[in-house]
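In response to reviewer comment 3 from the previous cycle, which asked for concrete evidence that the modeling workflow produces usable outputs, we include below a single protein chain processed end to end. The sequence was submitted unchanged, and the resulting structure tokens are shown without manual editing.
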Amino acid sequence: MNAYPTYLLPVTLVLLGAALLQAQVSTHGPRYTPPKGREIVTSHTNDFRDLLDRYPRDRDTFQREFPSRLEERRIAGMEKFFEDWHRVLLGMDFDKMNRSGQVDYILFRHRLERDQEQLAREAAHLRSTSTLVPFVEKITALEYRRRSQDKYDPQKLAPQLEKLARSIDAQRKEIEELVGKSRKQQQEEGLDEAAEKSFKTAEDASRELQRVVDNWFNYYRGYDPLLTWWITAPSKKLSASLAAYADAFKPDPKRKPKPVQKQKREGFNGENHASPVGKEQLAALLKREMIPYSAAELVRLGQQELAWCVQEQKKVAKELGFGNDVLAALEHVKKKHVPPGEQSAVIRRLALEAIAYLEKHSLVTIPQLAKDSWRVGMMSPGRQRFNPFFTGGSTISVSYPHQDMEHADKLMSMRGNNPHFSAATVHHELIPGHHLQDFMTSRYNTHRGMYRTVFWTEGWALYWEMLLWDRGFPKTPEDKMGFLFWRMHRCVRIIFSLGYHLNEFTPQECVDLLVEVVGHERTHAEGEVRRSLAPGTPVLYQCAYMLGGMQFHVLHRELVISGKMTAREFHDRILRGNRIPVEMVRAEISSVPLTRDYTTRWRFAEQFKHD
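The workflow returned the following structure tokens.
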């Protein structure tokens, strides 16, 4: 029997007339009945999982019941929704949960708190914007009366609709004046992002209300002949008034606000890059990922690891006969590329070598279906502008020259994807990296998908580059140089990505760093930065590789090197736990003390050592 009592989420609205819509919020709209807590949670894969699956569905269903985002009843209802779910957690006996249940509890509490904080920010914005659209309740009253199947007096309703349309038209003139003054001021003083955000929200809300009116009318049109006869013209007038009201917020394409701060638009800096988010936003994002470090501390950490890589590169350069001339040694390795048409065979060979090594040394369980289900594909020239190197998963997509590419780009593609550079990353993309993790996380603890983090996804794949280096997997000096090249690349990713968002690097300086410090081909460096700084790319994505890898490396030292677990047990537990913050991986598979109010505290970098 399910240990959680069932509960109902009514979708039938309280029967309301237009007059009742002015009453208190508690009398309006759908009401949410929260689930009840229980004394003990014994399993995170059954009872608790049902609860976790229920939360996002209830949240989304509850919100869909409201015709407008600006409704105070929706905002207040969502605030109550989160309060109810917090009470559910407080009603559970955390100390009697098993460790996996406790981890799920902590993860869910963090998720709930983030969602609640996001609602608080959204609510403040929507409440301030609602003054720009003062007729929300008068429009939504139509929809609520329709849902409650109220009967209308069509002859009285028609002039009411016309009066409402005239009122909106009058309000539009006031809004046009207000918006005009605001944008004139912006023209002189610089863009006011807060004002423009409110104008955009008001525009969207007005169009949303227009759809409410149109859908309301279409519900009756033709099915209620008398009502249709009376309200056709007034309804169209009301819809048109709402459309015109929404247009009042649209920016004038002829007017270009003066930017707050002029930036150079030269060379690579002139491309379309995301705006730096700044120190405070970086701190918030790192807290969300359970990384208890500041961005500046992480940049220093990247610099320290980079210094180690440089020293190791010098050792390898000497093995290759180039003394301390690392650039000459890199050039030697880059020239060992294969002819066009042969790269996919190289990738397959490297993938099979990695799988054989893993199985020979019993490092991780690889299901036969996972071994049989990966494929090799070729990346298009267009994608190679953003992904100069291969990407992985069930299909490893290989970057190599295409006949339509410029001759110089062809040469750079071959040099940057030489077999020795590829030897360090094929296993990152396939097995035991992205393909194996995709295979396992789609089968185990799938309810944890809502906690997915790039620090686990990319950190796990990068960790294997570290572990295989420690185990002596790269035998030749050329392969060692390839491993170090990519490790330096990940160090510099921390430095340039966080540095850019701290306003310390321009995009062009990021490119130069990759070329001058790591030794990238310039086209490849531009592709890397283009992808890293593209609008929509997660801010912490690039730094997550090395940092997540370090976390797993430290955890491996704590549990495997110490003799507490075998390597296979360690790696299998991680894969079956799904993509949760690495600190919570540690909490689940080790004996770290846990409390219901647990917060991030693992200073892993202080424990990171080179074997």
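Residues 1-28, 38-46, 259-265 have pLDDT under 50 and may be disordered. We consider this sufficient to address the reviewer's concern, and the full set will be provided in the supplementary archive.
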